[in-house]
Amino acid sequence: MWTGPVRRRVPESYGVGGGVRPVGGALGRGLPRDAGPVLDPTPPTGTLVPLPAQPSGVPWPTATWPAGPLPAGVALDALLDAAFDPEGPLHDTYAVVVVHEGCLVAERYGGTLPRFDGPGRPVAPDTPLLSWSVAKSVLHAVVGMLVRDGRIDTSERADVPAWREPGDPRGAITVDHLLAMRDGLAFLEDYEDAGTSDVMQMLWGSGEADMARFAADRPLAATPGTRYNYSTGTSMVLSGVVARLLGPGAPYRAFLTERLFRPLGMASASATFDDAGSWVAGSYLHATARDFARFALLYLRDGVWEGRRLLPEGWVDAGRTPRSVDPDDGIYYGAHWWTRDDPSGVFWASGHDGQHVDVVPALDLVVVRLGRTGSDRSPLVRAWRDEVIEAFVGTIPDADGS
Description:
It is a single chain. This protein has helices spanning 77-83, 134-148, 175-179, 198-204, 211-216, 232-246, 250-264, 289-300, 315-320, 378-392; strands at residues 93-100, 103-109, 112-113, 121-122, 129-130, 270-271, 285-287, 304-305, 308-309, 324-325, 332-333, 338-339, 347-351, 355-360, 365-371. The chain is an alpha+beta fold. It has one domain (77-392): DD-peptidase/beta-lactamase superfamily (Beta-lactamase), CATH 3.40.710. The strands form 4 sheets. An 8-stranded antiparallel sheet has the order 2-1-15-14-13-12-11-10, with helices on both faces. Strands 5-7-6 form a 3-stranded antiparallel sheet. A hairpin with a 2-residue loop joins strand 1 and strand 2 (103-109). Helix 2 (134-148) packs parallel to helix 6. It is globular, with a radius of gyration of 20 Å.
């Protein structure tokens, strides 16, 4: 086991810090279960909306974001006012960043980060904010880089020590199964009962020192590949695979910095690691809203940055291709990315409390919304995001598919 230094947790829930628990109430109270199992997915069979290239003459935002005007006819003031209304249903919204055709066209910040040991801290453009499960989509990029390096083959069995014993049926689980959340492990993604919840025990209980091992120790509930079950534990198993390949702790962190964060200019990005040296890639990445927008732009540009390919050709398409269906609301899941059957081709990273990073290929658009909005208001956050995207429809020829 890796015995390097432990990243110290600070008493702040959404600012820079380590593993954190929800603010207020009992442990995990009110946290959403993002999706459930589905045995017979029926994703759409249509073609994917093409990913646009960086417009000629628009600089990449590695150092600073180029600013641009909103397209004629696009009005966002009312929507931004609604998002930041302290008495409105979307409170607390901390940050909104909108990028169109590679330029920053709108942003706003507000609210205060709660702290356990004193007054809260006002949110500003340079405030790192907690990703929650948005981090899963960043893990998808890390795995893609290792695929491009020839160090991971997604069709091969995942290298997990607990599954190496001859006859262990979990040995059939591939990296692709993990990316698609179709590994078949019996992992309960429930945040209501700490006595039965695997994810609560993993993040804040008996499994927090070595989360990848805790998750990998779960038995199978279904044959690998046959069942979809959204699971933070699955992302931790995958992060453990990466940690063993790169080296836990410092080497893993260096890879994140040198191969992903620094090339994109994500100077604020900070990943939290457990005691065993695995990035807690299911939940914990801090970055500014602008830096999350940089990550989104990498995917909007098909894994290319400043003319250099960082992700394998076709990797973004693999992430946004529907593989499973959320049985609760019919939303599709690809490979560590969410998507839906929509003319805009929108796909997104999503996290607890209303963290969303939307990538909209048909409109050459990125929308980042970060905040602390309870799961009971998730439909309102989704409707607000749809309204922001809809505001851009019709400003680009054939953007609506007509």
